[in-house]
Amino acid sequence: MPQNEGSQHDGAPHEGFEDELGAVLRSTGEGFSVDGRRELVAGGLTRGRRRLVRRRLAVTGGALALAAVGIGGVYGGSLIGPSGKATTASVAGTPTPGSEKSTSDTKLPGQAQIPVKHIAAVIESNTPAGQWQFENLDAKGHAALGIYDDGNGKAAVSVGLYRSAGGDGEAGAGQVECPSKVHVAFDRCASERLPGGDRLMVIQGYEYPDRREETKNWRAVLLTKDGFLIDASEYNAPAQKGAAISRDNPPFTATQLKALVTAEAWRRLLVKLPGDPKAEAAPGAHQAPDPGPAIQPTLRSLLPKGLQVKDKGGDHGYGFMVVDDGKGKSLLEINVQPNMAGAAGQLFAGGDVTTLPDGRKVKLTQQPGEKGGAGVVWWTVDTMTPEGFRVVVSAFNAGTQREAATRAEPALTMEQLKAIALSPKWQKPTTK
Fold first, then answer.
1. Which tens digit of pLDDT belongs to each residue from 373-387?
2. Which of 43, 66, 212, 232 is at a distance of 20 to 30 A from 220, taking alpha carbons?
């Protein structure tokens, strides 16, 4: 079975899933957001680009898009709680405010006006027999949320319809590529081009990236060759968040999720979506990378000898690598940001800060990790030119911040991180 980079780092086998995905993804033929850093946030780092999925999946993604949000949730004003009012307990993203009437009758700019009952009907017709309870069937929008019960425990299920912000099946392919486990926790993921040109991703993951609760989120996302997204999520609880686990796993298998998102009946609803992709793009979906500095090749050219790259990724202005010198994995992250002079006073106000003869400021920080991994340490070199060109390099003594340390210290010393951050290559990076 063809797999992308994200699926090559799976942990213990998940019984039966690989065999099933092999069949599900047969074909002719890698937001959700990256984990944020306090200092980077202070600098306004890559706002908006580093949300994948909140979602992802969330669709997922090549380099990173769906991360900090984990893999959960479909965004839609039409997702309504049991009271008939918008609720954030079940959906990721900002629901349409107001009463049941305003949700049904008021059309916002760029908002889809598909009857939710029509979306619900397609869901019910293309899933195994069971009891369904859909929310606010009189509303209009581009998504439906229901609770499914097959007798083994109630499960929240959502399906959203979107236009791809990345374009057609080629330009938007990054939205259906498996994410790296550096930023997103999942058990299995596979993505593939299907016969006819559509692209499918199926991922078995978790609602919370740090696994603080064992709410599972299994998801299938189809990107059609003409640029539509059908995004289905299921959970092993009757709500995406805030509900007790009701069953070991979500109800539908990978085969059944594929059947749901590839159902022909979606086609007549997709054509009713507004034409503005920015209004309808799934917030968790990975977007095609913005043009920007060639982070990966420049970073790799600056690595000390003897390091093997185990994983890598990035988007505009951001890159990461998981490296190993034979003593354990070590995560390396970098951000390259122009026009940051206005934040210099805040970023370099205290701590171990020096000013070089050419005016560049250098701040060195060594502190514990902050994502829950036992024994993880976080070393950072933050630099900025007088003109505001900022390069921040961080290293950890683990392959991800969520997992326990794999070594006593990061694979790169502070001096090596400093050399990378101060390299003149960042202002004239390579292009390949």
1. 889 999 999 999 999
2. 212
